[in-house]
Here is the input.
Amino acid sequence: MNEINAKKGKIVIISGPSGVGKSTITKKIVELIDEASLSVSVTTRPKSMTEKDGIDYWFISKEEFQKRIKNGMLLEYANVFGNMYGTPKDKVDEALEAGKIVILEIDVQGGKQVKAVYPDAIMIFILPPSDETLSERIENRGRDSSETIEKRLDGANAEIASAKQCYEYLVVNEDLQQAIDECVQIIQQLKTKNIIS
Ligand code: 5GP
Here is the structure.
């Protein structure tokens, strides 16, 4: 048995455009599924007023990020809207060995990298009900400058097109509770099919 098959857990990748409600959905999934554990990414993006280091992200310098890439410490990484984001490899390995369902809330570039290493990872993409709702949500959260909002909206369409090609599950977040239920059901199926012990 190779190193990957010997691991007991399972990876679930959750992606979607900025403002689609991914963070809310993933936090709920972790609350509702006992075995689920959310991976905390590292990023070079500045911390917003409401975010906490080690909870929302590990906020690190560009130099530290490059060092981690060089030392093979990241399972995947990508430049998203001009900042670097990556998944710490050791934490994912630990959680998989403990039989956890590891939730990675990452972008499509990262999702594809993870799928190449873990072909049995489940890929879920969260879609907005319409383009208009997405721009409203990004603007209303009041976190980004107008330049960043524009970048995020441009990126969203490209990301949606790419995800439709390679993500196994597309979940539309029109009604938040329904989107959460759908994601939970997809993940619970892994257990009933005995894909996870
Ligand atoms: P935000 O700045 O809004 O928190 O995140 C911007 C984008 O980066 C989101 O699409 C988010 O899913 C993605 N992201 C967050 N963490 C990671 C990561 O570790 N790797 C990759 N590839 N993308 C990430």
Q: What stands out?
A: Residues 1-5 have pLDDT under 50 and may be disordered. The longest strand covers residues 74-80.
